Amino acid sequence: MSSVAEPVTVQYRIAVGKKDEIVVGPAEAEVVVTVAKADCHLDPTIAYMQGKLKSTGPTGPLLDLLASGAAAEVLTSYA
Fold this sequence. Notes:
Layout: E1 10-17, E2 20-24, E3 31-36, H1 44-49, E4 53-56, H2 59-68, H3 70-76
Parallel strand pairs: 1-3
Antiparallel strand pairs: 1-2, 3-4
């Protein structure tokens, strides 16, 4: 038996305005990360701890995204 986890699909929603957002990633993603565009310059781990970055779906893959820097790579491109 292999203990390698299956890759998780992620969608990023960057809120620009009240009803305006930038969506990056597949519509059927297992993890959905939401953050305001004004907070994209922050370290995503800090933003998560401050409640500025929110997510739905399993927490383990989200923590992996934060630790690997993958979330920062996507979000800082919209800062």
